[in-house]
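Support case: user asked for a sample of complex input and structure output to validate their parser. Sending the pair below.
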Amino acid sequence: MSKVTYLRKLDVKCGTIEMSHGGGGRAMSQLVEELFMKYFDNELLRQQNDQASFAVPAGRMVMATDAHVISPLFFPGGDIGSLSIHGTINDVAMAGAKPLYLAAAFVIEEGFPLSDLERVVASMAKVSKTAGVPVVTGDTKVVERGNADGLYITTTGVGVVPEGIQLSGDLAKAGDHVILSGAIGNHGMAILSQRQNLSFSTSIESDSAALHTLVEEMLKASSNIRCLRDATRGGLAAVLNEWAQQSEVGFTIDEQQIPVHEQVAGACELLGLDPLYVANEGKLVAVVPADESAAVLNAMHNHPLGQEAAIIGEVVNDARRFVSMQTRYGGTRMVDWLTAEQLPRIC
Amino acid sequence: MKYIDDFRDRDLIDKLIQSIHRDVQTDKQYRLMEFCGGHTHSLYRYGLLELLPDNIKMIHGPGCPVCVLPRGRLDNAIVLAEHPDVILCSYGDMLRVPASGKKTLLKARAEGGDVRMVYSTTDALQVARDNPDKQVVFFAVGFETTTPPTASVLKIVEQQEIKNFSVFCNHVLTPPAMRGILAQDDVTIDGFVGPGHVSTVIGRDAYGFAARDYGKPVVVSGFEPLDLLRGIQLLVRQLNEGRSEVENEYSRAVTDTGNTVAQQLMDEVFSLREQFEWRGLGMIPGSALQISDAYADYDAEKRFNTPPVSSSDHNACECAAILCGRKRPEDCKVFGTACTPENPLGSCMVSSEGACAAYYTYGRHQKRIAS
């Protein structure tokens, strides 16, 4: 197939996005070829169709989608691109599924620097390749200056759940253990440290990561894991409260078992935030039958993303569906379900 | 010293709790008011209440400036925000407070008003510098802790003649509010845990009147678990020994006379209002500040002719009784049903430091029967 030739190469260094880049014509085609396809490059994408067609292994399919409106676009430990890939891989993985393919749609503001777009796309391609989950189809729209705040990305992912695995938020039972995969609050505080009116100097980085291989190891250790969820917006507290409602149970957790890095704890104290509610992008929570939690925990400790994993509490019978916590001092407090997110535009 | 870790040391806290249990006399009731909303929040958040002996009753005071701001003043702020040329800068905790007609500053923003969240008065000044063609109004709320920063920014604004900045002043004062509570007929408070950060400004000596004129001991305390427990212990010991003195547990931050520079600044920039309406408590004389004549040009109330607006609370609301310690949150018929943090009917539910909000968010899993 002969390649299309363009009068001039895309000026990625100094150029900006123009309305024509979303117009469906030659300009858009050039942007797709010289930027998106250059970085995402795979066989399905090279077919240059509006869709990707692939065979699926037998089993239950899983599909998940996320819109990403994070501000700022670039932050310590990641960017909107890496976040979007990790986020959707994780949503698929939380069903116990092996993520297979991703789609990515871009809404770009007129005037957005091509160098920034390249940076985002290169980042997406890098994490996608590392995770082994390719971006096989996408879409590009451009909106007038003043809209889209630079860049919004929507990613959709599909995967297949192996036989015998049934994970769902309504399966938690009294007596089950709750496992947290690692220290909480890093992503939210990394983002906050970059916000203009709040900047404080810190080395906190986002924990954005693809969790599918960790999930794979956990499922090998136990095929009876009841619930899995990544603790994004609303933090650990949101996950437990959601499950309490879905499973009609209560949770009690132990503050002393919940890992929080010193810098994150300090930053939260400074700003009056509770780490339990701060967003994460590379942490999961699991509900596991009590007699299998040690095996699952062991498997997690042997994976790079689960080294700080801990059993943090258990499921209890509670018609009120409360989540309560034993504090560091031997007292108890509720971990209530907040109405709204403490921090906007966190993912 | 790592202040957070060291003042949260589990061993020390265990020992202190055991010591308090030994100190209390079994036939005595200790009814202690923690005036400050931040203290209420700490007590619930760290789960300290259930660790105290049963005969120590903590009564939650009105030291939550968001909670005690009368609804009419918030109505004024919303009207300012809706002005096409105004950018209203506000602390975050005011944004969701419902005013008349269930309006909030956040809703006003969604409907086109320019409302910006700031962490300090200095942030608001920067907004004014960045937007020279807009009028920036800083919605000043708070006890004595936040008053000096407002004063210092007003001084800068006056010196540099920054014409597009003004302050809508709702600063309130702690000692008059304490007097207001103590002056009531059926006061059932034996002693006060004195506010922490307010006291860094006004000093330990500002509470002398409570001990002298009303015979009530006061212990100024910090916010960490060790601070609060130690403050409570010192009050218990004073009551056991029949003393009524002002003690300072928070000596690492609070001095006897406080921050005199801040006090002078406040005296220069503000003057006392004759009286001010406190939500839940009614009119308290000499309890609030207005901008002084010397700085009148930067008074948003004068610049925008804000009218006085009075408003009353919901019929079923028990905030007035709760704020004076006569009732507990769970005594209120609408607590947790019609009145929740998402839909607050009264001031105590409105801010995370309000007694009802703190109990609802952290404590309602242990429903206690009111005694």
